[in-house]
Amino acid sequence: MRETFNFCAGPATMPYNVLKRAQEELLDWHKEGASVMEVSHRGKAFVALAKECESDLRELLDIPANYKVLFLQGGGLAQFGLVPLNLLGTQIGDGKTTVDYLETGIWSKKAMLEGARYAGVNTLYSGKADGYVDVPHQNEINVNPDSAYLHLCSNETINGVEFHYDIKNCPIPVVADMSSNILSKRIDVNQYGVIYAGAQKNIGPAGLTLVIVREDLLGKASPYVPDALNYTLQAENDSMLNTPPTFAIYLMSLVLKELKEKGGLEEMEKLNHKKSFMLYDTIDNSRLYRNPVHVDARSNMTIPFTLADPTLDALFLKEAEQHHLINLKGHRSVGGMRASIYNAMPIEGVIALTNFMKDFEARHYG
After folding, report:
1. Quick check: pTM over 0.90?
2. Average pLDDT for residues 319-342, to the nearest whole number?
3. Residue of 107, 220, 275, 329 marked active site
4. pLDDT band of 95, cuts 50, 70, 90
5. Element (H, E) at 154
6. Which residues make up the binding site for pyridoxal 5'-phosphate (predicted)?
7. pLDDT given at position 322
């Protein structure tokens, strides 16, 4: 285990065993005589790896057969525009000129602003006035049946709110940005039309973008979508229309194997609840630390908190680094601190952080 615990929001800490395995195989992968970064993406060895990677993902998430899995590039940010471009292209003539959005934080707001470039936007919920400290309950979401889809961000990394439920039986396709909590818990994929996620939180390194799309939503792309970013063309070519991010796919395959070895998403969900409870309990039983998010909307992945005395912020970060706890500074838009405790953060890291927080408060805010 590493001596330093990295709480970066992304690119985030990677599983130690995965990095060790990659290090061992870096120069000669599967006796190919070359690194996995050097072999052809169309060669038998890599094609087999990609297929096995998809198979493991399907098993972990229980992805139905009528969904395509795409390995793309551009990050979640690119999908803010690519979702409407891929889903609205042939629907506009049929009257589908609007899309519904849930604005629960900075990332869903960015997605909504991008979506507005391609369609009329209905903001069904906005938490902006309250500082993005909550998410709507399902009975509060009244979708427009004439909209092409409903978009949400399942976990807001900056604001620290998370949807702890799948929207059931929505009359229009649900599109979810799951960049920061995919693979952290069980979900019902059947309730979604599109799931997308940048890899750099729970999947692997930056550079890979995962898209899971229901087959009936293919074939709707705008003619202006570049081929490499067209869901339909990529699905028809098993994500090999152009050169995919091969090293990232390789690392993703190792991450998925480790998740399976640890008991799958059911066990991961239990561990993530345990880690987040420890940190929230420390915050809630403190006079120095505060988390503003409503309890039932608190994220299990990204936990922002502030200090009652902001003049202690710099000292907190300095001493944290001395205790080998790094990248705890909050996002520049909200300040304070942020602890990202994705799947790869071991419980020992959370224990070390909470012990430090208690000690720091006793010494500087007693």
Report:
1. yes
2. 94
3. 107
4. low
5. none
6. 107, 157, 177, 200, 242-243
7. 97
Query: Hey, is 176 helix, strand or coil?
Result: strand
Catalytic, out of 96, 166, 177, 275: 177
Q: Which of 96, 109, 201, 220 is catalytic?
A: 201
- Give the whole-angstrom CA distance, residue 16 versus residue 197: 22
- Which domains, ranges and CATH numbers included, belong to the chain? 17-261 (3.40.640.10), 263-365 (3.90.1150.10)
User: How many residues can be counted in the chain?
Assistant: 366
Chain centre distance of CA 127? 20
Q: List alpha helices for the chain, DSSP H.
A: 16-25, 44-61, 75-87, 106-115, 231-236, 246-261, 264-284, 313-322, 347-364
The model's pLDDT over 109-156, given as tens digits with 9 standing for 90+, comes to: 999 999 999 999 999 999 999 999 999 999 999 999 999 999 999 999
29 has catalytic annotation? no
The Cα-based distances of 108 to 104, 176, 186, 234, 340 in angstroms read 6, 10, 22, 25, 18
Amino acid at 64: P
